[in-house]
Amino acid sequence: MTNEVLNQLYQKNITPNEAYKQLYTIPKVPHRRRAHWVKIRIVVADDKKATRLMAFLFGLPIPLFIARMGLRFAKLEDKDIPFDKKQIMDLISTKGILVNVTSPDGTKVFIKTI
Question: I need a surface site. Which of 1, 55, 57, 110 has the fewest CB within 10 A?
Answer without folding.
Answer: 1
